Amino acid sequence: MTDLQTRRLLRISGSDARDFLQGLITNDVAKLDNGLVYAAMLTPQGKYLADFFLVPDGDAILLDTDGDQTDSLAKRLTMYKLRADVTIEEDARTVTRGIGATPEGAFTDPRAQALGWRAYDGTPGDDTNWTALNVDHAIPSAGIELGADSFILEMGFERLHGVDFKKGCYVGQEVTARMKHKTDLRKGLAQIQISGSAPIGTEISDERGKPAGTLYSQANGHALAYLRFDRAKGTLNAKDAQITYAP
Asked: 238 CB contacts (<8 Å, ≥6 apart)?
């Protein structure tokens, strides 16, 4: 199985490319010197707009994006460009992925070692079940777990090395920093055990029938869910599926 069918690449070039992105995204562009960088772009209110990988490409930077977000992301970047020496264009190369030793020319996935590598030079990928791997390691996906109401700290971006709290200002930084330093997270993405199945987006209810979260990706008796932790106790229900959460 693959999650690559809709991946698209944007190429960011020009003398101001790094500084331009540094002021917009959640991670530190300087980390490109060590390989891929996982990051997100947020609204001024700190909510999720898109997540992507930054890929070093000579003097330019590739953005490895979810294809459903590519056009809107390019439009948003263009809006911020103003007079900066930056060119934003689509790149025709494709993305491949695999598990195991990272091939020459490929890049280790920065989110977690178990996620293998990503390549942009035609290196053949493999047939890993990426949905199951995402569930096993609580990796949120754009358009499924990650949506317009998401806050990245609730979705695990600190654990996935997708946010840097020392890099300085970026759009949405103030809200993200406040959640980090002043708030105990009462909601968030979690791996759960599931008996049965239910459609992605099904509401989860607690033993009293009160809303306790939302069910998302499922594989091999486990699933990802966005939970209210104060209600995620005992046996939970999502239509005909029974759920348990063990923090």
From this structure: 194, 198, 202, 203, 204, 205, 215
